[in-house]
Amino acid sequence: MGMRHSASKMLETIHKMAANRRTYGASLLEDDVRRECRSMPAISPPVYNARNPPMPISVEFSRAAGWPVLLLFLAGMAAAGDWQAPASQLAQNIAAITGPGTVGVTVVNRSSLTAADAEEIRNQLLRELASFGVQPVASDQAAATVQIWLSENPHNYLWVAEIRQGTSQPVVAMVAVAGRPGGAAERSSTPLIIRPSLLWSDENQILDLALVHSNPPNMIVLESERIVLLRLQNGQWQQEQSLSLAHVRPWPRDLRGRLMLSKDHLFDAYLPGVYCRSTVSAPLAVVCDDSDDPWPLTGSQSELSAFFSATRNFFTGALSPGIQKNTTAPPFYSAAPLPRDKYTLWALAGVDGRLHLFDGMTDQALTQPSWGSDIASVRSRCGPGWQILATSNEQEPTDQVKAFEIPDREPIPVSSPAKFDGHITALWAASDSTTVIAVSHASGTGHYEAYQLAIDCLP
User: Fold this and answer.
1) Could you give the CA distance from residue 189 to residue 222 in angstroms, rounded to a whole number?
2) For labeling, which of 142, 292, 321, 450 is most exposed (least CB within 10 Å)?
C-alpha cells in the first residue's frame, strides 16, 4: 500500500468514525484508529511543535509508530453563526503543523450548512490562519496544502483538515463543534402530498414501467417474461406489441428489473444477469444477452450505477463510477440521491437494515425502523426541491409510501402516507426524476398495479 493510499484510507477511517460516534473519548478513538491502521507501513516521524496546549479532549499518534498523525479537539458550544472559536482552534493546530509560510487552502462543505454559513466559516478560517502567520495562496505557489471538509454527524459539526507538506505523510486534524444550530424537527419542510395515479394493471408481474412523452403518448411495461408496448388511444392504453425476453438461467425467486429510456434507441432493460435493448429500426425487436453490467440507480444512465447480484435481489455494493472517493458500499436494495449545493448526498437502503448516507467522504449508518427496502428520490417544487420516497417495513397485507427530507442527516417525514392495497414490489425514479413509479401486488385481486407518484405542495 503506497503512502498516498494509506493516508486516504486513514482519512476515510476518521470520517467514518466521526460520522457514527455520538461521544468522543480518547480511549475509544485510539482503539478504533489503531485497529484500522495496523496494516499501514511505518514512516519517519514528523517535526511537530504545538504552540499551545490543545482543548481538553485530544488524541495524538506518532508516525514513528506507523500511523499518520491524528489530532482530535472538541471545541466549546457554538451558537448558530458563531464560528470564531472552532475556526481559531483548527487554524491554530494547522499553523502548529505547517509553521508560518504560504499554504494552499481548500474548504469543501459536506454538511447541511448553508452555502452562506460555509463561506463565512471559510473566511473565518482564512483570517485565523493569517493571524498565526499562515498566508493562504494558490496551491501551485504554496509550501503546503490544506484541504478542510465541513462534515457532521447527528449531534455535532465535524471539521476535518488534511495537511500535506511535500512528500511527507499527510497529517489530519479534526475539530468537533458541539451545539448544532436548530434541531431536525425545526428544519422540516412544508408538508407535502403524494399523489398516486394508476397507470396499468396486469396479472403478470410488473417489474418497471416507463412513459414515453410522444404524440400520442406511449408506455413501456417490463414484465418477468416480456416487454409490452402500449399507445394511448381515446383515453385508453392499447397494446401494440409484446416482445419476449430471452434468458438461459431461471430468474431468482424475488425478481427485480429496471427499464430505462435511451437516446439512440427506445429502451434498455436490466434484469439479474441479463441486459436487453431495443433495436433502432422498425419493426421493433428486443435483443437480450447474458451480462453483469451495472444498473442505473436513477432515471438517468449518465449518473451513478451499481452492480446487481445475478442470483439475489440486491446490489452487491460495487459502484460505477463511484460517489467521489467511495467506489464500494455495503450491499443495498435501493438508492436515492439528494443533490446539495456542491455535492450529492446518497441514501442507500442497506441489506443490513440500516440507512447508509454517502457524501463522497463518509458513510453514516442510521437505523431505519420504519423504512422498507425500497426508496427513490423525486424532484419537486416543494421545500428544498428534492425528497426521498420510502416504503414501510410493517408486516401488513397493505403498504404505504411516505416522503422524507434529510436536512441534518436525520430523515424527517414531510408527508402523510400514500396507502396501497398490497405490498410495494418496485419503486424506481422516472427518467426526469419528477415522478416515481411504484408497483404494488394488490392483495384483493392478485394483480400487479403500476402507479405514477407525484409530489404536490400544500399551500
Assistant:
1) 35
2) 321
Domain ranges of the chain: 3-181, 187-457
Q: Would you say 268 and 287 are in contact if contact means Cβ atoms under 8 Å apart?
A: no
Beta-carbon neighbour count of residue 253 at 10 Å?
8
Would you tell me which CATH number, out of the four given (3.30.1340, 2.130.10, 3.30.160, 1.10.287), belongs to the domain 187-457?
2.130.10
Buried b / exposed e over 100-116, threshold 16 CB at 10 Å, is eeebbbebbbbbbbeee
Close Cβ partners of 27 (under 8 Å, ≥ 6 residues apart): none
Phi (first) and psi of residue 244, to 5 degrees: -75, 145
Nearest residue to 121 via CA among 150, 164, 151, 162? 150
Query: How far is Cα 386 from Cα 406, in angstroms, rounded to an integer?
Result: 10
Place of cell 441489506: 351
d(CA 457, CA 191): 7
Grid cell locating 172: 489530519
What cell does 156 get?
455535532
Q: Which amino acid is at 218?
A: N
pLDDT in tens, the chain (459 residues): 433 344 444 455 554 444 444 333 333 333 444 344 433 333 333 333 333 333 333 333 333 333 344 454 444 444 445 788 889 999 998 999 888 999 999 888 877 777 888 889 999 999 999 999 998 888 788 888 998 988 766 567 878 888 888 877 778 888 888 755 444 434 444 588 999 999 999 999 999 999 999 899 999 999 999 999 999 998 899 999 999 999 999 999 999 999 999 989 999 999 999 999 999 987 899 999 999 999 999 988 778 999 999 999 999 999 999 998 889 999 999 999 999 888 899 999 999 999 999 988 888 898 866 899 999 999 998 888 999 999 998 878 889 999 999 987 788 999 989 999 999 999 999 998 999 999 999 988 999 999 999 999 876
Domain 3-181, CATH class in plain words: alpha beta
| Number of helical (H) and strand (E) elements in the chain, helices listed first | 4, 31
Query: Are 405 and 383 a contacting pair, CB within 8 Å?
Result: yes
Question: How is residue 117 annotated by DSSP?
Answer: H
Asked whether the CA dihedral 415, 313, 365, 320 is positive or negative, the reply is negative
User: CA of 115: how far to CAs of 150, 291, 377, 383, in Å?
Assistant: 11, 43, 22, 16
User: β-strand 192-202 against 171-177: which pairing, if any?
Assistant: unpaired
Query: Does pTM top 0.85 for this prediction?
Result: no
Residue 214: Cβ within 10 Å count: 9
Report the C-alpha gap between 123 and 134 in whole angstroms.
Answer: 14
